[in-house]
Amino acid sequence: MGITSALVLYAVIWFMTFLVVLPIRVQTQGDLGEIVPGTHAGAPEVHNVRRKAWITTGVAAVLWVIIAGIIVSGWITLDDIDLFHRLNSDYAA
After folding, report:
1. Which tens digits make up the pLDDT trace of 11-64?
2. 85 CB neighbour count, 10 Å cutoff
3. At 89, is the pLDDT very low, low, confident or very high (cuts 50, 70, 90)?
4. How far is it, in rounded angstroms, from Cα 78 to Cα 88?
5. Which residues are bridge partners to 46 per DSSP?
6. Is 27 helix (H, G, I), strand (E, B) or coil?
7. What's the pLDDT at 40?
8. Cα 43 to Cα 7, 21, 36, 39, distances in angstroms
9. Of the four, 11, 28, 31, 84, which is 20 to 30 A from 77 by CA?
């Protein structure tokens, strides 16, 4: 795995993790009973984005180490996930 592939893999894992973490423990205007006129009641009032970004960075780093380790070790290859035998086996090696 090259450095660019590793960075792209980390970025994809980070954003997917961030989208999972983002709605956790969010307090909406409707929950707090303080709805600003012209906004939706589901609009976030307390969202803690900085804290969630740090949590995401840590979780994504752990997931990246696991996934990159599996890729680099060759434990799972393209031949393992080619269910319909559409990939050239010379390319997968």
Report:
1. 999 999 999 999 888 888 877 777 888 888 777 877 888 999 999 999 999 999
2. 8
3. low
4. 10
5. 27
6. strand
7. 82
8. 33, 17, 9, 7
9. 11
